[in-house]
Design brief:
Layout lengths: L7 H5 L11 E3 L43 E4 L6 H8 L6 E12 L2 E8 L1 H4 L5 H4 L2 H8 L3 E3 L1 H7 L6 E5 L4 E15 L3 E4 H6 L7 E5 L5 H9 L7 E4 L28 H12 L11 E2 L4 E2 L1 H11 L8 H4 L3 E4 L9 E4 L11 E7 L2 E4 L8 E4 L5 E7 L1 H7 L1
Parallel strand pairs: 4-8, 5-7
Antiparallel strand pairs: 1-7, 2-9, 2-10, 3-4, 3-6, 3-9, 5-8, 6-7, 11-12, 13-18, 14-15, 14-18, 15-16, 16-17
Helix pairs in contact: 9-10
Length: 393
């Protein structure tokens, strides 16, 4: 559904394993695309434990959950004294130190984070946070991959895959499909595992500040952080305005209510339909990559109409107003929350073309096609504002 190397996180963290990362996490599972999240047992998300000698107290139980609101990433280790100052910033409720970089997992370049399973779990969606088996597997040396990466990228639960940089990779077991609720992270390992294949150390922070103004908080943090550090807001659950309400963020006067022109809509739809029959490729966003995933197709089609879109479905869903399907018109985006491990997280997107039909890149093994709109896990339509799209991108 998204290209690992061109997401929000590369802007935040991401050059490469040798430097830093980008952020977004998830859990993947093999299931029918029509199966509703509440029909999928949690046991399907985690591979059977193979580490029989692991202490029962190796991973602390979940005490409480914290919102994951802001991601900070740097090319260098963030000193403990600096982290302590961040903890004392007004509005900050919790700070988790992580390792973050882009790395190769099963041949795909994705955002990877190294974490302390006992403490990081508190910042993840409820199904993920509550799975003791999942975090024990990570502690023991497994890698957990996102729902999208696993289900659409063809990474099999329990399989051994190479993980690391281009020069140095280690075989790791896919121990869980688990979404962390951070759209730029597709793989999670323990601190020890991360450092075993050369990940940067303690170069990123996940910050919980549920009542703080994100803009003001970022300004306060900028005074403390290294100049190379970048920050990004983490939105694990979609929070969209209704039609007529102002879109969050500052835009030039007169642009809050703008939508796509008829010509832009026609160009975007023609561009998407020109790719009919092209294979679905996880992370694909061009012919050169052999195909497109759902958000890659949206980004490509809208770019032909001169509209700059963010890369992943979760971010594309925030580029305008959410409206009911009954009010949808050609050119609107249609969104779904198919991830059983993060029920509010938008993981699939398509372009509505009218008449109850859409053009979409469905899933691995399929091709770009026109099909009837379906409503399992459907979350509505988005009327795109080009200026908001550019700002989010």
């Amino acid at each position: 559904m998204r290209r690992p190397s061109r997401r929000v996180l590369p802007t935040v963290i991401g050059t490469s394993l040798a430097a830093t990362l980008a952020i977004d996490v998830g859990i993947a599972l093999e299931r029918s695309s029509r199966q509703a999240p509440d029909q999928v047992p949690a046991s399907e998300f985690v591979a059977s434990a193979q580490h029989v000698n692991l202490s029962a107290t190796a991973v602390a139980p979940l005490a409480q959950r914290l919102s994951a609101d802001l991601l900070v990433a740097s090319a260098q280790t963030l000193p403990p004294a600096l982290v302590d100052r961040v903890r004392r910033v007004d509005g900050v409720r919790g700070v988790e130190v992580i390792d973050a970089a882009q790395a190769l997992v099963a041949g795909k370049r994705v955002g990877v984070v190294g974490v302390d399973p006992s403490t990081f779990r508190a910042y993840t969606p409820k199904p993920t946070a509550e799975s003791d088996a999942l975090w024990r597997n990570i502690y023991a040396g497994d890698v957990a991959v996102s729902f999208v990466f696993g289900s659409d990228g063809g990474v099999k639960l329990g399989s051994m895959v190479p993980v690391g940089g281009r020069q140095r990779q280690s075989p790791l077991r896919i121990g869980a499909y688990a979404t962390m609720g951070m759209s730029q992270v597709d793989a999670v390992v323990s601190h020890g595992t991360a450092r075993s294949f050369g990940m940067p150390s303690a170069n990123a922070l996940v910050i919980s500040a549920p009542k703080a103004d994100a803009g003001k908080l970022r300004k306060s943090l900028a005074k403390l952080l290294p100049k190379d550090a970048k920050t990004a807001e983490i939105n694990p659950e979609i929070r969209l305005p209704s039609r007529g309400a102002p879109v969050p963020g500052r835009l030039p006067k007169g642009r809050l209510g703008q939508v796509m022109s008829g010509q832009q809509i026609a160009v975007a739809i023609r561009a998407a339909q020109a790719k009919l029959g092209v294979p679905y490729v996880w992370g694909g966003e061009s012919d050169a990559e052999g195909g497109y995933d759902c958000s890659g197709l949206v980004q490509y089609a809208f770019a032909q109409a001169g509209i700059r879109m963010p890369r992943v479905a979760a971010d594309q869903a925030t580029t305008g107003w959410r409206i009911p399907f009954a009010q949808a018109r050609p050119g609107d985006l249609l969104i779904w929350a198919n991830d059983p491990t993060a029920p509010g997280y938008i993981s699939h997107i398509a372009i509505y073309i009218g008449g109850g039909k859409m053009v979409v890149a469905p899933r691995t093994g399929d091709v770009v096609k026109i099909q009837q709109v379906y409503f399992t896990n459907f979350r509505g339509a988005i009327r795109v504002n080009p200026h908001v799209a550019a700002r989010v991108a």
